Amino acid sequence: MTFKKLLLGAVALSAVATATAAQADKPEVFRVGIIGGENEADRLRNYQCIIDQLPKAIGVKEVKLFPAADYDGVIQGLLGGTLDYAELGASGYAKIYLTKEDAVEPILTTEQTDGSTGYYSIMVARKDSGIKTIADMKGKKLGFADPDSTSGYLIPVTSLPKDLSGATVKDYFSETGFGGGHENLVLAVKDGKFDAGTTFGSGVGSFDEGYTSGNLRKMVDKGLIDMKDFTEVWKSPLIPNGPIVIRTAIDADLKAKFKAYMLDLPKNDPECFASTMGGDFKSYIEVNKDFYQPVIDARKSQIGQ
């Protein structure tokens, strides 16, 4: 075989490989990851409107939902390229960034009804426990939601020490553990498995109603808890709202159509927006990696410890 034929063959193979890669970046099936911690049937139902609307909006044949048992299931799917889009907590995004910084792009986050772009880690205890303040939790059992949760773990373990009279989380509480997601964690507190636990809320509105959005509000709306049974023991500093992320390798035109669809969703379908986000929010706003740099730094520091 002549050199010319070999060269032409190599060029042809390269063209096929390039076309295949380009096709892979324009998926016919758009795969949506949903983090765990809430009843799976509820999660699938809340995202049904996305399944119905997205194919036409972004030009794919089908949208499939992939609910994970925990946060890490979605994180690993995004790192491995088997998921295309997900809503994450800031700490979950930080884990991805610190593992493979170009795996996903944070493109949007939510704006609260008061215009803020943050939320809070909320520590709750049963009202009949007598626990009212963080001082009352000394020597007691504290539950966290998930090791990859921002509000349910990262922010409490990094922010609590300043409120513990210099003590570490490990020394201050008799025991710590994980509840298996935010919903399960609050139910574990309700059942007395933990003396208190960390979940999340907007901090906007009334605690007695579960605030305007967040896990507590979702659980109230589903009839799983009555806020009269709980008391707020501790609230963190403001945390950046978690990002909507999309796989970096996705075709640029598809990304643009997806972002446009999401930005228009609060106006075009407020019910779908509220359902997928779990509460009352004002809108989506555009963000990038810089918005999450403080959480990336906090996670990196925690890993170092």
TrEMBL record:
It holds the Pfam family Phosphonate-bd. Residues 1-21 form the signal peptide. SUPFAM superfamilies: Periplasmic binding protein-like II. Keywords: Signal. Belongs to the phosphate/phosphite/phosphonate binding protein family. PANTHER family: PHOSPHONATES-BINDING PERIPLASMIC PROTEIN. This is Phosphonate ABC transporter substrate-binding protein. It comes from Pseudochrobactrum kiredjianiae. The gene is phnD.
